[in-house]
Amino acid sequence: MAKNLFLLPGDGIGPEAMGEVRKIIAHMNDAMGADFALDEGLVGGCAYDAHGAAISEEDMAKAMAADAVLFGAVGGPKWDDVPYEVRPEAGLLRLRKDMELFANLRPAICYPALANASSLKPELVEGLDILIIRELTGGVYFGEPKTITDLGNGQKRAIDTQVYDTYEIERISSVAFEMARTRSNRVCSMEKRNVMKSGVLWNQVVTATHKEKYSDVKLDHMLADAGGMQLVRAPKQFDVIVTDNLFGDMLSDVAAMLTGSLGMLPSASLGAPDAKTGKRKALYEPVHGSAPDIAGKGIANPIAMIASFAMCLRYSFNMVKDADNLEKAIANVLDQGIRTGDIMADGARQVGTVEMGDAILKEFVSLSV
Ligand code: IPM
Ligand code: MG
Q1: Ligand 1 atom closest to Cα of 136?
Q2: What is the value of pTM for the model shown?
Q3: Ligand 2 centroid to 263 CA: how many Å?
Q4: For 161-185, what is the mean pLDDT?
Q5: Which whole number is the average pLDDT over 66-91?
Q6: What are the helix (H) ranges across the chain?
Q7: Does residue 130 share a domain with residue 54?
Q8: Does some domain include residue 265?
């Protein structure tokens, strides 16, 4: 049966980065007997320009029906003044919410060749391999009320609501414990229980879930601010970090920079396994944004997008060998000193988006024989 991929390249550098994944998919179809069927839609600013919405109903339906969605990036200064409800980011948030993609996996791996590209000392990041599990469909991103009210006295009041139910914390911490078992078997949970009720419940539920089902995994708790500090002080102390939607957004950008560039970090957003088929809805996207300043110049780093496709092979299609090979291909190309501008180093060869994609594909081809 064909594997249905729905591509949403989006805005800015999204389409350029997606172009490099397309080449890999074409090769897998033509030469490796893979059976990927591709369809493509619009999301973000380009969808607003075409339909007046951040994603059309038709494309939402296609995303819901696909085996996996590959997402590029959304946003840019062109859409700074569009109404809040249809801003580019609304398309991504709707996909996450409607597809119920509650588990966002953000691995931060420092490739040995890039230890010098990090803003931290190389010895602090060399060999870094952490996995941030971010809750993605709850918390302050979606909590109601979410309003700005005119108080009538020259003042306005803005409200966002941080809200978590027990089941949401249970299911995200279960994902974290299960992922930890496939790695170094350690989870650090981060919240702000010293200030927030949602942090108190988060801490209680993670502790109870651990006690009940995962007591073989080593569990630590950290306040999220201290966690941020520890991430830049001694990042290698962590294995799996589990945290809420907003803290996860911030901590994963911090973790990204440890690896040398935001252009390196892939992510997978997964739903619950279907009761009948066991299949999870899934969306794969680079952690970086649309980088409007460099869009269209052919210089964007496509590695995060390609590594996101590797996660798609692994988590949606169980194509473990191909996923390993694609990740190895990225590491080999970096070892060869081939770099886009964002990860450039002395003595390396600077290339553009297409050349980087070609180099990775070439390595992938020779690893796949
Ligand atoms: C991310 C991004 C998004 C988020 C934006 C684009 C809405 O920063 O995926 O980390 O805040 O979740
Ligand atoms: Mg973010």
Answers
A1: 12
A2: 0.96
A3: 13
A4: 98
A5: 97
A6: 14-31, 45-51, 57-65, 88-98, 122-125, 166-181, 197-213, 224-233, 245-258, 303-317, 320-335, 353-367
A7: no
A8: no
